[in-house]
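Researcher: Please predict.
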Amino acid sequence: MRGARAGTSPNADLVRPWALIGSGLAVVAVAFGLARYGYGLLLPQMRTSLELSLGQLGAIGGAGYGSYLTACLACPSLLSRLGPRVTVTVGGTAAVVGMLVCAAATGPLTLGVGVVVAGASPALVWPPYVAAVEEHLAADRRARGHGVINSGTAYGVAVAGPVSLLATGSWRVAWSAFAAMALLVTIWAVRTLPHRADHTDGPIGAGSLVAVAREQGGRLLSATFLAGLVAGSYATFGVEVATAQAPLGEISGGVFQTLVGVSGVAGGLVGALLATTSLRHLLAATASTLAASCLLLAAAPGLVLVSAVLYGASFIAIIGLLLIWSNALVPRAPATGIVTAMLAMALGLVIGPPLAGLVAGEAGLATVFVACAPLAATIGLLHPARRRPPTAQPA
């Protein structure tokens, strides 16, 4: 088969390249775009219905990202022992169950349980697809495969927005619809992925984390941490600002999230510019755009929809660039690279929402996003350094 990598096992011949990429895009879309970001999208409706405070909303958001962090730590071991199919099955099941619990929530405790269970899903479905692309696609197809799968987040958010509009006033229906999509996509992923990978990076321990953090890896981890800090705050409270300002009335929140997703699709294509522009320049440009989106959300009433467009494009672009960077640091162990970067981002995601909730409770949401702007801009300063010549490795 043309798409299979030379030297892989006969099992690789069973994996169809575009089926692999298509199911990867779909499962990332539901895990990130729905299971994780659905909370922020439906937050204004849930806040009113369940009578939740900003502090409670931030704590629930942080708990969801905490489960994401825990799943990041568990994923390499699951992938090594059980293979990509079982790992993605666990992640997809977490998305379905967690969103169904959210749909049935009666207060902050049950909502928190649902968000925590669903929040583990993204960390369990993305690394197996990174490994599968490296294992089963030809070398000239891998970069494109990673880019398409990574853009699934934007597609998921773009779908979630219209669903929330159709379910205005009935957030339980929206969560139920998201869970149904997750079930269908998980079934497709299970039918597409191989039972086991021919090789995996193995479990990540402290030694692996230190190895990835050496040299410019420290810059990568700092950049991903800041990206998580900003994204956690924006994803949790951005829709709240759009709903409060209501430039389009009661549909403002859904339109806001839809614009984030649609513009994110364009952001997923930024990797193609690396043929003519360096990663450091692209990272600086996208980080500046991310900072601008935060300032517009904070200081320019009526421009929240412009902020959504800038945020969607810049954040998805930054994630793609950081993925390319992590793969370059550990080309022989792509899953190790991406999971390590995900761990750093997860730390930011865990800290961001509860910290933003506390600040918002004291000084308002505008202050939160003014503070996020310089953090976003700093990402652009943490570009890859010029690498030292590699040392010889024993044969």
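Model: The chain has a mean pLDDT of 81.
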